[in-house]
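Example record

One chain of 76 residues, shown exactly as stored in the release files.
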Amino acid sequence: MSAGLDAQATRLLARLRRGPITSLQGLEELGIARTASRVCELRKDGHEIQSEYVKVRDRYGSKCRVARYHLVKERA
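Predicted structure tokens for this chain:
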């Protein structure tokens, strides 16, 4: 892992190692308001992360579309 990654990107990478995470989970579980930005940083650092859009329910029970991220391969 690059020494340039901030604490949020480091937390996100650790969470991705355990399995997929949505942008909503990034906010709720990790306190990361801009999960997509942290994913971008991880990709620039050489990690292969796949994304797809899925429908979930928000805290109010409304359906919404969010990104779900999968760690495919860590940087060498």
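Notes: Strands lie at 21-22, 48-57, 63-73.
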